[in-house]
Amino acid sequence: MTNLKYTPEEPIAAIATALAPAALGIVRCSGKNCIELFSKIFSRPKALLEAEGNTIVYGWITGIDEVLVSVFRSPKSFTGEDMIEISCHGGVHVVQSIYNLLLENGFRAAEKGEFTFRAYINGKADLTKAEAVREIIDSKTDESQNRALGRLAGNLYETIDGVKKHIIDTLAAIEVEIEYPEDEETIADSFDSSELKKAEEILEQLALSWKSEKIYQDGARVVLCGKTNAGKSSLFNALLKEDRAIVSDIEGTTRDFIESWIDFSGIPARLFDTAGLRETEDVIEAVGVERTRDLSEEADLILYLVDSKAGLTEDDKDFIKSHTGGKIPLILVWNKCDTAGKTDSEVFLVPQVNISAKKGTGLGELSFLVKKILSVSEKSERSGTGLGSERQKVSVEKALESVRHALSLTEDYALDAVVQDLEDSLDALGEVTGDVTPEDVLDSIFSHFCVGK
Predict the structure, then answer these.
(1) pTM beyond 0.70
(2) Mind listing the pLDDT tens digit for each residue in 188-229?
């Protein structure tokens, strides 16, 4: 671990709560002799040193604050080491003073992700669980959090472990055939490929899951497009349930885009309200229109609004047709359907929904349709297990490639060739869980954590 800044067992400390005024603050410590070190600045050292794991000791840090100290004894702690968590009043100066005092009395400032790194190296968590901790911290919706919680609980690790068992069982059968051959050491009739086919199917589902899981983590870019006065700003406000965008009957009110995070039935999204698409001589509005076109080219999904009272214009039709069957999906949103409107008789091969942004009708159906389009992997949705990072996806795809290559080998190849493929697949799966992981990968993973986690 020479390229990592972490030194296992060395006493470390970090502020674990936001450094802002609050009811409570927490300073976290871990490492060899961390309890003994802290006892030297604690008002009740004997009580602290004799405290059992998973207990709380009341006392004072002289001259700073009244505190509660949660005690965790190795190996029954988050890091697997002795740990304490100091709960104090949440004033910025109080928390910072306790932290500084710890650094003056034998503790080192923890690096980003160092607590979770120690949990990993001490066998308290594999890499899928470690990465899930960061996912939970960064989650933007309940659904995002629940998916990360599943990985933290071990559903991905168990799935990977099951795949490894299928591969190992196949390897064992081949090794027997190599050791005690009845004929030539060839693949024909030498082992049952059913276990490998099961592994292939599961790996395929996992590889497909990342596209959907990535949206739950990073969020989708959903852009509201349409002619002026189609109701984009009204829909923006209705979806956010607050008046963020100015709404007016005057055409060209929105001259630039505004954005906000939103929850589409569990999928986090950055929702963009944009300038209406039209030809204009207003220089500022023209810039806004151009930005609308740029945003639509970078979107994960376009919600194209049409005023159902006015119907479709030729510009509307051209825009919709240009996005039919393209890489960016589009939903045709008929707005103002609370009034006696009309819909165009022309059939478009795009999803359509009727709403009233003003009255809020049809918004549930719109949210459901957005989620359906953005949730691209139905198999992984049903299985309930998905990948949590691009790193995991790359490793799973490497394992899948090796398994597929093993299945494709013909009787012209020696059994040793299959063995090599299967060993390569096990190495790739070991990278997912951390059984086989280069140091630079570990450095990249844990450096993205916040300090104190």
Answers:
(1) yes
(2) 455 678 889 999 999 999 999 998 888 888 889 999 988 888
